[in-house]
Amino acid sequence: MGIAENLAAVNGRIRAACARARRDPDDVRLVAVSKGQPIEAVLQAFAAGQTAFGENYAQELHAKADALPEAEWHFIGALQTNKVKMAIGHAALVHTCDRLALAKELSKRAFSKNLTQRVLLEVNVGREAQKGGARPEEVEALNAAVRELDALRCEGLMCIPPADEDPRPHFRALRELRDRLGLAELSMGMSADFEAAIEEGATIVRVGTAIFGERPRQEGQ
Length: 221
Ligand SMILES: Cc1ncc(COP(=O)(O)O)c(C=O)c1O
What we know:
Structural class: alpha/beta
Bound molecules: pyridoxal-5'-phosphate
Radius of gyration: 17 Å
Strand content: 15-25%
Number of strands: 8
Helix content: 25-40%
Shape: globular
């Protein structure tokens, strides 16, 4: 199947999950994860009506956003503070703000470009040592600190549950945390579990392989 067909199938599954959960499909946004995919694949998805794309590497985001500025670009990867300047001005939403030093750098760079950077706080719901994200018990303080930064606007939470566990309890925990903090957005759910994420309240799902197929291998990965 081609990208347009895959996209139509994913959108159909999103609508069906919304119907099961009695949710309005307009309340769930699909971010097509184009990491490692050539720009031609992005252009095919864009031509088929997909407008939001997610990238994991600041340089790749920058290059693709320059090639297709009409799309809405989301940064969803681990972000080093020294790469922040490459993302600012290109990322409509940074999903992976997970520590105060990074939040401060994002705010500083956004301020210097006269922008307000929208961010989500990434939560390490499975407390995995190798993964990014703030610990659940740190999120309230991080949210309060981010609120003090002039050029950032925190809109919600994001998570990547452990690969080998049932994601539902993690999705549920993220939703409860989001509700407690009074935030709007919940970025959760990938190709393998986006329907469960929608049933548990996701407002943004990040789907790569179900749209583009397997990612071509990249050097250094
Ligand atoms: C943070 C994040 N979200 C979503 C995805 C998409 O995953 P999948 O290809 O399984 O849909 C990726 C893939 O790299 C990712 O890193």
